[in-house]
Amino acid sequence: MKVADKEEIVKKCTEMLEELMGDITVPRNIRRSTSAVKNKLLNGDDPLAVRVATVISDLDELTANPNVPSHTRALVWSIVSQLETIAVDE
Questions:
Q1: How many domains does the chain fold into?
Q2: Would the pTM count as exceeding 0.85?
Q3: What is the distance between the alpha carbons of residues 79 and 58, in angstroms, rounded to a whole number?
């Protein structure tokens, strides 16, 4: 997978996370967690594979929260699926 493709996936996932952060039907603590996950994904200090693995783990924990609405959980799983394409490639 090309670097440009990976960057496009990260950009798409970031946009999806921003969509979650702006959804007022999602509890505030979940939106805050989503913001922290987005910042981890965009943190350029670590290699992309490490950032992706960390974000996938955090998002898996997030979906285990019983306060997460079902439509949010589905979006989070979609983000995880996109990110897994990067993690498997590296």
A1: 1
A2: yes
A3: 12
Tokens 């200090």 correspond to 45
User: Closest by alpha carbon to 41, among 2, 73, 87?
Assistant: 87
What was the pLDDT predicted at 3? 80
Dihedral angle, C-alpha 30, 6, 42, 46, nearest 10 °: 120
Which of 70, 69, 71 has the alpha carbon at shortest distance from 27?
A: 69
Retrieve residue 51's tokens: 């950032």
> To which H or E segment does residue 76 belong?
helix 70-89
* pLDDT of 2 above 90: no
Domain containing 57 — which CATH number?
Answer: 1.20.1440.50
Measure the CA–CA gap between 20 and 71, rounded to whole angstroms: 10
